[in-house]
Amino acid sequence: MNDDNVLKSIKVMIIDDSNTIRKSAEMFLRSSGYEVILAEDGFEAMSKIVDNQPDIIFIDIVMPRLDGYQACMLIKKNPIYQSIPVIMLSSKDGLFDKARGRMVGSNDYLTKPFTTEGLLSIIHKYAL
Q: Are 58 and 87 in contact (CB under 8 A)?
């Protein structure tokens, strides 16, 4: 299987309470051939993770009900899902936020606003 076929079969989950962020990420990723799963917060994401088994998860830190840190910790504590790369999304680029993300098990950190190239390079790094 060549790289293009591998890329096309990757399921990317975007968890963000901002409709704008979800829709723009979905547009970027679908135009690159990825399957995209969307969730508005960590709580909604939990059932979608079980139903869809994403290959990589991008999760906003600040969300209602279940924030990105809590959701990441739940994903990483579950033996079935702990190997899924979780990338924290935040408009904050602080050392503390990155360190806290690492403490709950995130694999990487992407600062908003992100670019198509930023999303794709992280997917290439973790999901191939």
A: yes
